[in-house]
Amino acid sequence: MIVVSRPADHGPVLRADSVALVRDGRHLLRDISLTVDPGEHWALLGANGAGKSTLLGLLGAVTHPSRGVVEVLGRTMGRVDVRELRSYLGHVNPRHTPDGPLRVRDVVLTGLTNTAAPVPRWAPTEQESERADRLIAMLGMSRRAQATWATLSQGERGRALIARALMPQPRLLLLDEPATGLDLAAREQLLASIDALRARHSSLATVLVTHHLEELPATTTHAMLLRDGRCLAAGPVADVLTSELVSACFEHPVRLVRSDDGRWAARAEPVPAAMPDEPAPAAMPDEPAPVAMPGEPAPVP
Ligand SMILES: Nc1ncnc2c1ncn2[C@@H]1O[C@H](COP(=O)(O)OP(=O)(O)OP(=O)(O)O)[C@@H](O)[C@H]1O
């Protein structure tokens, strides 16, 4: 049966139960379970090729699982019209390319039709136009609202795409490496915009994919670590973003630090080179727990 009604606006925003995805006989994801409730802000972390974008595709109703159940906004994948369901999600893909020489405001409005170009003979209502302007202002893009897409910097595009994704007033916002390619200032502005957005919309849930801990907004509440398509750990950030688990996730010793402003930084620990005829050193030496130096942010165990 195809569902054509607006999804329920209560209950978990996302639920994945023992999900697997197989392509060409290869498991890209195995046995992934996850529940995202309103107001939660998840980070999906893992090395290149760990399966982050693949999982985001499942959570964003873009792909179907080979096994297991995925529920998006209370609807079970496989039993719903995914195109309609997707129109209730905000999906920020930094590789999104508008079709034609559109201005920022036009691109933001295409978030309502979930298309790359304005739909012929479709026009936004007055309310929708006002909402576009409000979101453009909220993302700090008012002065660039009439600029054509081609003239925008990478950071401006990132913020415009978040405004676009928010047009249908989604309960769920999916962000796939939103800070990729941004310089320091643009990244910081983007993260501040995401923090402000979350503070303003307390029931919005978000899932953000990255492989850089420095790109996590301070408002991140939960994290899932993926390695080779499997979930290594998932839960509240304080339990999951530890030096030990992140080292295991990236298969390299890493020291994690969370600063007073709630942001994370990761430093790769040097791995001593093996000398000829000596056994190779262990990938993660069994070191004592790091100790905070006076005036330094506390290391995360
Ligand atoms: N359609 C597909 N068919 C076969 N293999 C695929 C397909 N899509 C992705 N893969 C493979 O699945 C693995 C996971 O890819 P995915 O893009 O999800 O990783 P990722 O964690 O997002 O990586 P990155 O950080 O590099 O973006 C990769 O080895 C990739 O080559």
UniProtKB/TrEMBL annotation:
Protein keywords: ATP-binding, Nucleotide-binding, Transport
Low complexity composition bias: residue spans: 268-294
InterPro entries: AAA+_ATPase, ABC_transporter-like_ATP-bd, Metal_Ion_Import_ABC, P-loop_NTPase
Ranges for domain ABC transporter: 14-253
PROSITE patterns assigned: ABC_TRANSPORTER_2 (PS50893)
Single GO MF descriptor: ATP binding
Segments of this protein annotated with the region Disordered: 268-301
Superkingdom, taxonomy of origin: Bacteria
Name this protein carries in UniProt: Iron complex transport system ATP-binding protein
Organism, scientific name: Nonomuraea thailandensis
Lineage: Bacteria, Bacillati, Actinomycetota, Actinomycetes, Streptosporangiales
